[in-house]
Every structure is written in structure tokens, then in C-alpha cells.
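Sequence only, no structure available. Ideas?
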Amino acid sequence: MPVDVEIAMAGPADMNGIATVLIRAMEPEMIDRFMVPFEGFEAAYNAKIDWAKQTYPRDIADQNKRIFKAWLKDTDHIVGFAVITYSDGNFGDDKPDASAEEEQKTASDEDTYLKQETPAFAPFYFGSMSAIHKKHMRGQKHVIWNSLHVHPNYQRKGIGTALLRWGFEQFGLEKEKVWIQTQMRGRNVYRKFGWVDIENFDIDLSRWGGEMRGFGMHRSPSMLRKPGKFERTNGIGDE
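Reply:
I predicted one. C-alpha cells follow.
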């Protein structure tokens, strides 16, 4: 059932609400268990809150980024948010296109990360995803849709779609190439509005969590939407 929300730019006072949405929205993802190397729910939760409180104020201050929120009209409670970044395709590393494949191989050298005293999953994962992004988008003006998260209690009520639509209308994104890297749970939402698969990053989580602990393969799709009208392209349901 749809809920009555408004969408607006986020500010420093919204950081607690945004951090909570991020943590709750990512809980179902198995990779989330490897992102913060703390034992116990409370320690991991506090570490994620600290990370979000440091990261999102920088996003607000960054002239190339936009962070916006969805909040309930009757309570002012934040139930979702999104972050986008404008990129000119110059990644500041001065690497020629010919080195992109080698760059990705280096970033994705899983054995190197696993051999560390404390296996560093987050640098491995984000480094690998960054290398895929650079390989496909180097030298091309585009917008990165960094984040789109909705609190689990309010998912499948059209809030994710509303955030997408607001972002496209507010910032004129129909004229832009829009890059996104997501999880399989979110893939169909983006396909519905014109994104296509570019490359998948697959990780065998049993290598990080132990073969007998129930961890399996995890896939993170990278997707691109070419300029065009923001409209539904198939009948997949709202998020």
C-alpha cells in the first residue's frame, strides 16, 4: 500500500535517520556481514553508524554530489534516501584505457586480501567495483547513482521508484548516462526504468566466511542507463 511521503534535499540534521536506513536496508545482504570487522551486533552497528556520520556530511558538502531523502509527512521520519555524483569520466589516476584490464585484475586479486592478517573485504570489494566502473566509463561524462536505500518496513510501497523519479526530474537526468552498481535484490528495479547489465562481479563468500558457515556466491551487477525518457519499460513491481 503506498505511503504519504515527501522528497527533499538532505541536510546535516538528517544524518542519524539516513544512517539508520542504510544499515537496516543492507541487513539482508550477505556481504554486509563482511564489511565491518567487528564481532557482535552492537559493535558492528556502531561502527556502521560512525562510518555513515562521517561519509554523508562530506557528500552534502561535495559540489559534485546530491543527497536527498524520503520522509513521512505525518512524522518527519526518514524512510529512504539516495545519493548521486556527477562525473566527467576523468578518474584522476592518469591510467590509459589499455591498462583498465590490468587495473581490474589488480583490484580483484582476492588471494592477496585473504592472506592479510585481518582479511580486508571492504577494500577488496569496493576496489574491484571501482575498477569495473573505470573500465567502462573512463572518459565519458555521466552521473553515478551511488545509493538508493529504503527502510525494510517501507519497501515495496513505491518509495524507491519515487526517489528515482524525483532525482531524474530534479536534476534533469534524462539527458545523462547514469551508471549504477547494485545487488541482485535491486537489479529488477533499475531494469524496469531502462538500465541494462554491463558487467557482474561475483564473489565466493565461502572463501571469506568459511565453507561450513553457509556462505555462497554473491553477485553485484554494474548497470548503465543511456539518455532517454524516464518511464517504466516492463511490468516489474515497485520498490
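The CA atoms of residues 12 and 57 lie 6 Å apart.
Hope that gets you unstuck.
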